[in-house]
Amino acid sequence: MKKLRQIATILFFALPVFMKAEVKEIPFTLDDRDRIIRTEKEVSSLRSEMNARFESVDKRFDAVDKRFDQLFNFLWAIIGIFTTMMVSVLGFAFWDRKLSLAPLKKDNMKLLEVLRDYSDHQPKLREILKNAGLL
User: What is the pLDDT of residues 58-81, one digit of tens each?
Assistant: First the structure.
């Protein structure tokens, strides 16, 4: 075991010596420079395309917003019309009811007056009208 440990220690320290790291400097050539320039041009053209697309999307959103505003204005107009119709129908119903009940009230008052006059001669009718609270 001791021998194995010694061999492992020697190999551990000697391994970098045996394995020379090939440090080779890669020169920067004109082709590399041209490739970088082409890549930068492509990236800038992609950026301009993306900006153009974002602007068109923004225009579409603005158009949709305007359309929603028009739709909301239309809905408010419909709500106003509906409310006006309902108020006018209810007003007409109340007015018509009042107008149609007025002649009936007149007839009832005439009938009550006739009964009161007749009750002066009929004591039993007078008693009935008193009990009903009409006298």
Answer: 999 999 999 999 999 999 999 999
